[in-house]
Amino acid sequence: MPPPDAWLFPLTLFAALGCGLMGGVFLAFSSVVMQALARLPAPSGMAAMQSINLTVIGSLFLMLFMLTALACGVLGLSVLLRWQGAFSAYVLAGGVLYLVGNLGVTLVCNVPLNNALAPLDASSTEAARVWSDYVVSWTRWNHLRAVTGLAAALSLTLALCEWHGAHIG
């Protein structure tokens, strides 16, 4: 069995890249895709979002999103079991930011909004009202996912810098 350090660096690197990628995707989605969907007539924007929500299931995006969460969880547990100073603090902060701010917000906020949108007929009058509220609320939560994903990536990158300094210097 390799020493713990043998897997800590690559797993932390993977988590940092995954967090940064997810934060960037969420930022692009909030600032471009949701803005474009909001400009469309309500039935068109809503139907497009319903299609996006179906497409994300089983996608490469979802796999990377979940693998990043798994990596953050494993890293968080490992540093709690074997604390290594600043490296561990940065890893734990990054893991918590991603698990709470990305996975948690997704499960508690964005997914329920998506589930409420899914069964609606996009051409109904009720749908237009729901869509208007959905765009504002969903985008707000997505902004939070973007910020926490990028902050997690920064924290994990700082952990890698600490690891490098401790093991090279």
3D structure, described in words:
- The protein has about 170 residues and is mainly α.
- It has one domain (about 5-169).
- The protein is about 90% helix and about 0% strand.
- It has five helices and no strands.
- The chain has helices spanning about 5-40, 40-55, 60-80, 85-115, 125-169.
- The longest helix has about 45 residues, at about 125-169.
- The protein starts with a helix and ends with a helix.
Biggest sheet details = none
End-to-end gap: 25 Å
Strand fraction: under 5%
Using only CA atoms, what is the Rg? 19 Å
Could you give the count of β-strands?
A: 0
What's the order of the H and E elements? HHHHH
- How many helices does DSSP assign? 5
Number of domains: 1
Residue runs with pLDDT of under 50 for 5 or more positions: none
Mean pLDDT: 94
How would you sum up the global shape? elongated
Q: Report helical residue fraction.
A: over 70%
Concise overview:
The chain has helices at residues 4-39, 42-56, 60-81, 86-117, 125-168. With 169 residues, it is mostly helical. The model has no long low-confidence stretch (mean pLDDT 94).
